[in-house]
Amino acid sequence: MLDNLISEFDRGLRTLFAPASSARPHPDRDVAEAELSAADKRHALGLMRVNHCGEVCAQALYQGQALTARDPAAREALRHAAFEEVEHLAWTERRIRELGGRPSLFNPLWYTGSLAIGVTAGLLGDKWNLGFLQETEHQVGAHLDSHLSELPAQDDKSRAIVSQMRDDELKHADMAQQLGAASLPLPVKGMMKLSAKLMTVSSYRL
Ligand SMILES: [Fe+2]
Ligand SMILES: [Fe+2]
């Protein structure tokens, strides 16, 4: 358990402070950079910062859940999904830099909160843990869908990234379902939407 904690702590520091890397090629690698107005660039940057912060949260949630999940198959699936979330982290991080910005200052705060939520979900038992994961991935998928229409029309690079992420998140939701996710009570889903909204508003700006 102590070894686990130390390695998760190390992973946390890396998520927050070290550049992430991707085994898969970045989805926008063959897409040309478009000419964006200053306003469009700012908007795309804000949206990609939100998505990056979302991926920081995903790291923390998955880590927390993997620490406390009981079933070895569930733990393994969580680790595999977390690996893909690191790739999402790498893609959004690079895109933020290309758009001339930096990641959200609130990342450490959301990371810590999400880790606590992940640990709690894991402690409730595997079916709730997986239910929470499934609902998170559903909500993130829907959110990314909205970004596909919100991103500036010419910003095909950001759109290529968001679109691949959306596909991955829906796959993660299916994985959770297959592993036996329970459906969460409506008020819990509502609370999750509310905290996601707070995260979105804060990281868009700073
Ligand atoms: Fe992701
Ligand atoms: Fe995901």
UniProtKB/TrEMBL annotation:
Keywords: Cell membrane, Iron, Membrane, Metal-binding, Monooxygenase, Oxidoreductase, Ubiquinone biosynthesis. It is found in: Cell membrane. Belongs to the COQ7 family. The keyword Protein transport does not apply. InterPro entries: COQ7_proteobact, Ferritin-like, Ferritin-like_SF, Ubq_synth_Coq7. HAMAP family: COQ7. The gene is coq7. It catalyses: a 5-methoxy-2-methyl-3-(all-trans-polyprenyl)benzene-1,4-diol + AH2 + O2 = a 3-demethylubiquinol + A + H2O. It comes from the Bacteria. Fe cation 1 binds at E55, E85, H88, E169. Its cofactor is Fe cation. Pathway: Cofactor biosynthesis; ubiquinone biosynthesis. Catalyzes the hydroxylation of 2-nonaprenyl-3-methyl-6-methoxy-1,4-benzoquinol during ubiquinone biosynthesis. One of its GO terms (molecular function) is monooxygenase activity. Its EC number is 1.14.99.60. It is a peripheral membrane protein. Its main location: membrane. Binds 2 iron ions per subunit. This is 3-demethoxyubiquinol 3-hydroxylase. It is an enzyme of class 1 (oxidoreductase).
